Amino acid sequence: MATALQRKYKAWLGEKEGIEKDVARIVAAYQTLDEKRARIDRVTMLLDSVETIMSEILPDWDPLKQKGVKSHTYRHAFPIGEITRLTTKMLREASEPIPIRKILDYVIELKKIDREDRDLMDATYKAIDGNLRSMRRRGHIKSTDDFVALWYISDEIDEEAQ
User: Fold this and answer.
1) 3-state SS, residue 18
2) SS3 26
3) What are the structural domains, with CATH classification, of the chain?
4) Of 103, 106, 110, 138, which residue is the least packed, with the fewest Cβ within 10 Å?
5) Closest of 76, 110, 78 to residue 93, by C-alpha
């Protein structure tokens, strides 16, 4: 009976933590509600202005046939291309094949990324992983077939570059 009660306690504790996280997310979203409503009003005014201008420039243009697109947002603590530069630098300086975690730690320390920001940490990990795989596809680097892949610039690739 004690085991079943402990299991139920853990389930309720997990449920409580999940609900608290949901409440925090909802409260944070609610705090931006007025700002978002104001932005909707502003964007609606901008859309009306464009519709008026477009009806003058292109009378056949139909705003109802237009699809909205979501702007791409770049969510990294560094400029585009810097992941490639940092990853390549780390691989060149390594005396032996290295795991992605070592590269991630290097980038985190160098760019002073907050380890508590899980979204940014995940995005950084995925950017490094994607970069490594892309460089491997192009033949710039190689990796081991271990469970945790180790990445390196092979001697053959170095010789080809010279």
Assistant:
1) helix
2) helix
3) 2-65 (no CATH), 82-161 (1.10.10.10)
4) 138
5) 110
- 139 HSE (CA, 13 A, CB side): 6
Candidates 125, 133, 32; CA nearest to 77 is 125
Burial class (CB in 10 A: 0-12, 13-18, 19+), 123: middle
Global model pTM greater than 0.85: no
| 60-115 confidence digits (pLDDT tens) | 999 998 888 777 665 566 788 899 999 999 999 988 999 999 999 999 998 888 88
Tokens 């780390």 belong to 90
CA distance 51 to 47: 6
Joined tokens for residue 10: 């853990």
Kindly tell me the burial class for residue 107, based on how many C-beta atoms sit within 10 Å of its own C-beta (0-12, 13-18, 19 or more). Answer: buried
